[in-house]
Specification:
mainly alpha; two-stranded antiparallel ribbon; 18 helices; single chain; Growth Hormone, Chain: A; globular; 488 residues
């Protein structure tokens, strides 16, 4: 089989770098930069948004977009496998654009949250870019490019963090959502012009009913976690949301098990994929919750005697840029290592580093230099985690299922982020204290928050090491024994 710089002539897959591939990668990196402007940029102005809307629902303002990602991802992943990845990616970008405009014009917090639910469709853009890479590249180079595509936007984020801070200070937080809308529609045009349509699609039906059941179930359960700490864990409203969500998820599980083409085939998930998803849900949830905590640490000064506080010690933009640098380095490095030692081993190594980063934030809660260093380590971990998670899941999927299986990664990313953000916010609200007539987060609350995040990372590390051992054992098992196991 003869390979050229443009790709393999027989299969049409890229096997080495070429101008068309470089252009494609550049566009996909910019698409994921748009995702960052939609999901993480608002963290910089989180205190301003809380003041503007007169609410303390930190998790709703921050995590509602990730919640929407969990609702959108399976539907868009299945649609991409059936109708084409480029077409669905363009639609996703346009929906995100509409959501950003709603957020910019929102007169109250609930309209804002509705806009975030629309804008959260951008989360699907991440896994669609990965599915496109695996669709057009040979497996070995695809692992490296997945790392670049998922993490390359970190370069832009380093600059944008400081620009975002200045823009928000001059024009209000709404300007961030206007910028996000402009970036989204620009990238929709770029994708339409540069990205080829899928080579492989699969006939099938889209389970809209299953998507509605799963999404409403997640919304009910996570709403209970968010509202229970404020209204009471046994109050009628939160309990009704919990029961409604549990019924919807149970119904979705039962109905899906009987459908020939369910949105997510729970029965078809093997042990390696299940372990991969568990690692991702715990580690990314921990990272996102820590990212949510960082702006709150800067609101308190160490001189207030609460046992923590970074106020007056340095720039919040620098603190949020440090993870961006880590992501930028961790993703491509994990992709290069995965091509040599496999994504499972790379995933395990990344999560171990993340556990060290989470533990280090106990010191970083009161010392700015330590916070920058350990925030960098956490970013490095999430870059490696995203790359290795997508590579691991993609290696377990058939070509015609790349969109759907990649969407599962984003589902658990969103679920982990939302759950741990809500849990952390509940802990902070339950332990708040009053200082000089104003409610502030207590040291007990902050360090309990950090303990939950570090514990989640540690559990993820244990599971990641178990996954790496399982994959290594399977790789060393003779092929005829693997065949007998799969047919027993």
């Amino acid at each position: 089989m003869h390979e050229t710089a443009a790709g393999d002539r027989e299969t049409g897959l890229h096997t080495s770098w070429s101008p068309p591939l470089i252009g494609l990668v550049a566009v996909l990196v910019l698409v994921n930069f748009m995702v960052d402007t939609a999901i993480t940029a608002p963290l910089i102005v989180l205190p301003q948004m809380l003041d503007h809307f007169g609410t303390d629902h930190t998790a709703w303002l921050n995590a509602s977009a990730m919640l929407a990602g969990a609702m959108w991802a399976p539907l868009l992943g299945k649609s991409a496998d059936v109708h084409g990845k480029r077409r669905v990616l363009v639609l996703t970008l346009l929906i995100s654009c509409a959501g950003a405009l709603v957020c910019a014009l929102a007169p109250n917090v609930w309209v804002f949250v509705a806009g975030r639910l629309l804008q959260g469709s951008a989360v699907a853009a991440m896994f669609l870019t990965v599915a496109i890479v695996r669709d057009v590249c040979a497996p070995r180079i695809a692992m490296l490019i997945v790392g670049i595509v998922t993490s390359g936007s970190g370069v832009l984020n380093i600059v944008s963090r400081f620009a975002t801070e200045k823009l928000a200070a001059a024009h209000g937080f709404q300007i961030l959502f206007v910028v996000s809308a402009i970036v989204a529609v620009t990238m929709a045009l770029a994708v339409r012009g540069v990205v080829p349509e899928s080579r492989i699609t699969t006939p099938g039906r889209i389970d809209f009913g299953g998507a509605l059941l799963m999404g409403s179930g997640l919304l009910g359960v996570l709403s209970y976690i968010s509202l229970g700490s404020e209204l009471g864990w046994l109050a009628l409203g939160p309990v009704a949301l919990l029961l409604g969500g549990a019924v919807a998820l149970t119904r979705w599980s039962l109905v899906s098990s009987r459908k020939p083409e369910p949105l997510i085939d729970i029965r078809g998930l093997g042990l390696p994929l299940v372990l991969t998803l568990l690692v991702i849900v715990l580690a990314t949830g921990s990272y996102q919750s820590l990212l949510q905590l960082i702006p709150l640490l800067t609101e308190v000064s160490g001189s207030q005697g609460l046992g923590y506080g970074l106020g007056g010690q340095g720039s919040l933009a620098l603190l949020l840029a440090a993870p961006g640098i880590g992501v930028m380095l961790g993703g491509p490095l994990a992709g290069a290592l995965a091509a040599r030692i496999g994504p499972a081993a790379t995933l395990a190594g990344g999560v171990v580093v993340g556990t060290l980063g989470a533990l280090g934030m106990f010191a970083g809660a009161s010392m700015f230099p330590a916070a920058v260093v350990f925030a960098f380590l956490l970013g490095f971990t999430v870059g490696a985690l995203g790359t290795s998670g997508f590579n691991m899941a993609g290696s377990l999927a058939r070509p015609e299922q790349q969109g759907l299986v990649s969407s599962l990664v984003m589902v658990v990313v969103a679920i982990g982020s939302v759950v741990l953000n809500f849990v952390g916010s509940a802990v902070l609200r339950a332990t708040a204290v009053t200082v000089d007539g104003a409610a502030v987060n207590s040291g007990t609350g902050v360090f309990s928050y950090l303990a939950i995040a570090a514990g989640a990372f540690a559990l993820a590390a244990v599971l990641a090491l178990a996954l790496a051992r399982h994959v290594r054992r399977e790789r060393n098992t003779p092929a005829h024994i693997q065949f007998e196991r799969s047919h027993s």
